[in-house]
Amino acid sequence: MVSSRFLSLLFPLLLLIATRQAFAQEDWLAYQSHLCSNNEGNYTTNSTYHRNLNTLLSSLPSNNTGNGYGFYNSSYGQSSDNNQVYAIALCYMVNIDDPGCRNCLNVSRYALIELCPNQKEAMFFNHGCMLRYSNRLIYGTMETTPSLCMSNTQDVPPSTVNEFFQKLRELLVSLRSETAAAGSLRKFAYGNTSGENIQTIYGLTQCTPDLSEQECNDCLIGAVGNLCSNGKIGGRVIRPSCYFLYEVYPYINVSAVKPLPSLPSPPLSSPPISPPPPSTTRNSEGSNRSRNVVIIVVSIVVSLLLIISICICLRVRKTKGKLEILPAEDVDEIGNAESFQMDFGTIRLATDDFSEVNKLGQGGFGSVYKGRLFNGENIAVKRLCMNSGQGDKEFQNEVLLVARLQHRNLVRLLGFCLEGQERLLVYEFVSNASLDRIIFDPIKRAELDWDRRYKIIVGITRGLLYLHEDSRLRIIHRDLKVSNILIDGEMNPKIADFGMARLFVPDQTQANTNRVVGTYGYMAPEYAMHGHFSVKSDVYSFGVLTLEIISGQKISDFQHGENVEDLISYAWKNWVKGTASNLIDPTLRIGSRSEMMRCIHIGLLCVQENAADRPTMASIIVMLNSYSLVLPVPSPPSFVMHSNTEFKTSLGALDSNSDDQSQTNSTKVSVNETSISDLYPR
């Protein structure tokens, strides 16, 4: 089924195609041009500036960003971190009513990101509107460059050239004065002039309404001076802050121009004019062109409205009983997942039918694919396999939790799909994949110098602190590991995969579960053996992860010479001997040794056997930022047995002495760093 979101993206594109086809006989009227400026620098994909830009442009053609008369101005982001984005848009009063202007802007905002994919400043001119964005304040500033000039192909008869351009100059002077003197809602004027031996000339001038009277006047004077259509019966000049054109036939429906509140009718330099006699070939062509536009656009609009209505009806019927997310009292607290639901066909098309070329990786719950939405945004799609072990409860859990989490060190959930047997999670695309792809690669890990590794450790700390204390909901991740840490283009870490996460009420500190899920080596001993978990369980996993980042070796496959032992045991033995520097990755030849040793110390504090002895994430933030703080001496960790058989036997013995001796109270662990779960409620 075609989704309404797909149709909302398709509509402006079809409208642009239809309009361009209707104007095919006069290509200069169907122009579009763009400028990608390098003056303000570039941004990286999925950076803060990129996200702010997408957010701003998606909201631009809305009533709360416009003045109601075809001018839009908005900004998004924080100026303090130099990632604020400013944008303005102007609708040209050329056969463009309010809905048409919005469609023009919809087309422009998608096209501009595609045409200028990394520039912080760009401009787009279309036949009906202008769109600009920048990382600098552009509102209230007159901009004269770049300047676009176009002309009609037909010449003015030689015998009337002087009279024609004399009348044109008089008309443009009159329109310029009227436009400049207009109010702050709209600076626009339209009129015509005629002579004894020439055809009627129609002119239009327009400025962005944020300009002063003098600025508008100066901008139009410069634009007229740049006219390149000498000897032609029509032409136009477009600047970022002003615009003018002239032709020998009417090209605007004056009655469709929205009147200003203080005026009984639109500002005109002369009364509304009637079309020229039908005997004029040029006028006949213009009439035919306008008729074609109306027919094509109306046909498309009616067809799309019909399709949208059918889709909405079908979707309402289909989703009435499709997804029961949470009891009513929990919906207000966590949020409604339906607002994030996406159509399977849209995701399938975005990933090229989940082709192997787009496959990013394989996990315990399924595969991850790269995709690209119609608006040009790159996405990562997690396609859960039917036998993955993650049931509907875990799936809904991840949707509801991640949808409410907003932090620079947490991966952002864009949507989900639950259709038939398909369960898909759509995330922001993080360009450098997961941390394990880098840190455990003998070649790539050399690219991670100490400064970058330290930045990753600090970023993970901040993300966990947000989950544990700073978000509205207290969340225990329960599956923190290197493969669940994604790295963006700026080497910032993002915690991912919340399928195992558990929600705590604000005052709750710990909980129990009969079904242990997670990854071998990262699970805290009290959780792996007894099912007790708390924020300190995540702290334990963080400690393991920190030691892996420093050493560049896996917790489950640590090797030192010919001996094979677990990473935590090796780290503790060397700490006791005073040779903890042996743990440091040999590729880290440059960097602060004191920081490295301090991080090893923090890692050992996190993996202490007694959960109460482990620091909180808030304390770890202080430890990382304050070198004057004396760290406590760590107590011995709970060592993991080397043999998988011994490990299972130990757990079985513990389970046999527990209060609940049922077989369903067994502990599950993964020995290949793949998360596992069960199909029973927890």
Structure description:
The protein has 682 residues and is of the alpha+beta class. The protein folds into four domains: 31-134, Killer Toxin P4, Chain A, CATH 3.30.430; 156-274, Killer Toxin P4, Chain A (2-Layer Sandwich), CATH 3.30.430; 328-428, Phosphorylase Kinase, domain 1; 436-623, Transferase(Phosphotransferase), domain 1. 35% of the residues lie in helices and 17% in strands. It contains 17 helices and 23 strands. The protein has helices spanning 4-22, 48-59, 98-115, 161-180, 213-225, 281-319, 328-334, 344-350, 392-403, 436-439, 450-470, 525-530, 535-551, 567-577, 593-606, 617-625, 644-656, and strands spanning 33-42, 71-76, 85-91, 119-125, 129-134, 148-151, 187-193, 201-207, 235-238, 242-247, 359-363, 366-372, 378-384, 413-419, 422-428, 474-476, 485-487, 493-495, 502-504, 510-512, 532-534, 559-560, 563-564. Strand 17 (485-487) and strand 18 form a beta hairpin.
Strand fraction:
15-25%
Mean pLDDT, all residues: 75
Shape designation: elongated
Largest sheet: 5 strands, antiparallel
Total individual domains:
4
Q: Compute the number of strand runs.
A: 23
Classified in CATH, the superfamily of the largest domain is Transferase(Phosphotransferase) domain 1
Low confidence ranges: 1-30, 263-286, 316-335, 505-509, 640-682
Do you know the CATH topology of the largest domain? Transferase(Phosphotransferase), domain 1
Q: What is the second-level CATH architecture of the largest domain?
A: Orthogonal Bundle
Number of helices: 17
Structural class estimated from helices and strands: alpha+beta
